[in-house]
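Q: Given only this backbone (298 positions), what sequence would you predict?
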């Protein structure tokens, strides 16, 4: 490609992004950050740059992060075997302590990276300002320790940070009515926060390309799913294990008023920008109804 074509293609990219930048100006967008994109240093930089860019073009991003693989590593270093029931970490008092320490470390690392890029960020967990109130969560009636089910989201502190130009970076630790600490599944936390904040978008960075009609057939990736179609798909039994609770979470968030939920492959460089700013987009978007389709999706 010659010099001129290269410059022109950059201009076209910016022009293509313009309607999206206008559409989401000042809108709240939640990024659920987890999976491989957290472990790979280069991908980590990509995600943080993307979030900084969303902020700088006028959106109000909020990061909700997990730290599962890192927690498992430290639990292992203590000589314990990480245990899961239905995708939820069995969390005894010692594991709870490790989870809180590890999530704090991850939280401040993300803040550090954002600040390095010249945007203001503040890391909190659900304990701060009573942001995430929860109760004990059971896995099919089984007691799995200090795992929390969110009962209430107090948005005051998040709104205070946004109003003062900070990107909130939120770790999924909450307290119950007796002020006991609980580890909360980060997907659950992202959905609850997106719902309470009436977010315009909730984007999940995952280790899959999106939702497939048939997981074995990579050409069956679904770009846009309406609520009705998503419900049907859930009932059809074709959705695999780890995807089930995620999809259910997404459906609930859209039902509760989040305009659209995206399931994205965090292993792709700049997947957030590709989904937010290009006509084609990547991954799967779950929307309320046909009425919320973008012009390019009709």
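A: Predicted residues:
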């Amino acid at each position: 490609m010659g010099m001129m074509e290269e410059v022109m293609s950059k201009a076209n990219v910016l022009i293509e992004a313009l309607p999206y930048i206008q559409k989401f100006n000042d809108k709240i967008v939640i990024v659920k950050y987890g999976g491989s994109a957290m472990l790979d240093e280069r991908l980590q930089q990509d995600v943080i740059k993307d979030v900084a860019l969303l902020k700088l073009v006028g959106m109000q991003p909020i990061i909700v992060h997990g730290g599962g693989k890192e927690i498992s590593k430290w639990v292992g270093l203590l000589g314990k075997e990480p245990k899961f029931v239905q995708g939820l970490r069995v969390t005894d008092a010692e594991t709870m302590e490790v989870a809180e320490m590890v999530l704090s470390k991850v939280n401040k690392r993300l803040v550090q990276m954002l600040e390095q890029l010249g945007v203001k960020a503040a890391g909190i967990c659900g304990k701060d300002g009573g942001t995430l109130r929860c109760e004990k969560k059971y896995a099919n009636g089984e007691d799995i320790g200090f795992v929390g089910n969110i009962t209430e989201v107090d948005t005051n502190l998040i709104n205070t940070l946004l109003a003062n130009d900070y990107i909130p970076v939120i770790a999924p630790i909450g307290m119950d009515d007796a002020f006991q600490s609980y580890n909360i599944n980060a997907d659950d936390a992202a959905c609850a926060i997106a719902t309470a904040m009436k977010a315009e978008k909730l984007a999940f960075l995952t280790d899959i390309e999106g939702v497939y009609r048939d997981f074995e057939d990579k050409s069956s990736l679904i770009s846009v799913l309406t609520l009705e179609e998503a419900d049907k798909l859930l009932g059809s039994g074709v959705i695999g294990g780890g995807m089930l609770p995620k999809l259910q979470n997404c459906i609930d968030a859209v039902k509760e008023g989040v305009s659209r939920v995206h399931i994205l492959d965090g292993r792709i460089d700049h997947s957030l920008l590709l989904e937010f700013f290009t006509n084609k987009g990547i991954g799967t978007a779950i929307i309320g109804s046909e009425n919320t389709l973008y012009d390019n999706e009709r």
